Amino acid sequence: MTAYDYVIVGGGTAGCVLAARLTEDENVTVAVIEGGPSDVGDEKILALRNWINLLETEYDYDYPTVEQPRGNSHIRHSRAKVLGGCSSHNTLISFKPLPQDFDDWGHGWTWDALGPYYDKVQLNIIPVEEKDRNPIAKDFVAATRKAVDVPEIDDFNARPFEDGVGFFSIAYHPEKNNQRSSASTAYLHPILGSRRNLTLLLDTWAGRIEFDGNRAIGVHTDKGYVEADKEVLLCAGAIDTPRLMMLSGIGDAEHLSGIGIEPKHDLPGVGENLLDHPESVIVWETTKPLPENSVMDSDAGLFIRRDESDPRPDLMFHFYQIPFTTNTERLGYPKVEHGVCMTPNIPRPHSKGRLWLKSSDPAEKPALDFGYFTNPDGYDEQTLVDGFKIARKIAEQEPLKSWLKREIAPGPDVTSDEALSEYGRRAAHTVYHPAGTCAIGSVVDGDLKVIGLEGLRVVDASVFPTMPTVNPMVTVLMIGERAADLIKEA
């Protein structure tokens, strides 16, 4: 048994921030329990453009979904199994969140409280460099400006935006052969070996939290027990944080009893409010192979504001410079050698779901039900339908039009709202943004402490009460930065 002041479960996006910030005090000891290996020197991880080849590999926990009657039941939710977490695994599209996204969070989580932490984020977030701007992506931007009359945005992080098209800001190092600037490379790599008060317990699986009364005092792992003298900090993400809590007896007491887990603390919100950013896809074959240059093959995108009563966009597109046909092939559409996609995305979906344990076996993956397209108002599927229509307008506009040979999926004959909705939901995918399952106000309080317990906090995307409009990684980093201050002030 080894004791530390703080035991962090999960060396991912937020966990790296906490580990770096808390060990700035040389008198504080920190252990990070991470289920995967180090990313140091691993080019499979560090080469950003290789992200798509990490899916469903040894670096991926690869969680399935339960049957989705109104969506795609074949979606696999990638969760990273490596130091840096999903920031070592994703495309590193990096958005400063929009201020209005926090209007409903409450409990002290206002934009005024959180916003200043953006300036503390250490990742190298920059707009895509000129050398990486693929000609077809440039032509997508130009065609979009004309087709839907939105401004071109040079830097999406310069100020809040209502709509616009442009190249994304991405956390990467153009001068280092486009290597990642992840939470691990930015926060941990510079201090590894120099801070003796930081211990990384890699390839180590956390199975249960230990309590003394109502106080969390340590974590049982597959390699032994790790004691926490001050706090256990859960940073395992919106799937594995509630999973570990439930395995430790924290959650809905009736559910836990029913699968043979003795309830420690009845907290029904654990695993509820499962959020995501669903999207669908429209695919074109191109007239010729595309130029090779790119950061990560989805370097540009579009935001549309349909609801003029809200200053935020409510429809997003990624523009893929590769034919992303994982889901369309399953529906019988052909695979093409060279092509592009637009992916209409729902920034603030109305549908939500839940996750739960199937048994008390810690090795069994939890059940994930995102409830895709189940909200009765039909908002989510209408967003996809609107997106397909806008995408086709853009495809008909030069200079993009000349690149496109034919629409592969759903195909030009699919035109009615009903048919577009049916296709869109069946071809839907995830942008790998699960969140919300330990929400502020229902599972944790304003200091991110688990309600009703001591010595236990949650610091990751599971604390989101609602989904931010934009890709959430930077929001998680900012939460990690603010949480470090809350912990230091305790």
From TrEMBL:
Cross-referenced Gene3D superfamilies, in alphabetical order? FAD/NAD(P)-binding domain, Glucose Oxidase, domain 3
The Glucose-methanol-choline oxidoreductase N-terminal domain covers: 237-251
Q: Name the domain of life this protein comes from.
A: Bacteria
What's a Pfam family this protein contains? GMC_oxred_C
Fetch the InterPro entries from UniProt: FAD/NAD-bd_sf (IPR036188), GMC_OxRdtase (IPR012132), GMC_OxRdtase_N (IPR000172), GMC_OxRtase_C (IPR007867)
Q: Which SUPFAM superfamilies match?
A: FAD-linked reductases, C-terminal domain, FAD/NAD(P)-binding domain
Q: Which family does it belong to?
A: Belongs to the GMC oxidoreductase family.
Record protein name field: GMC family oxidoreductase N-terminal domain-containing protein
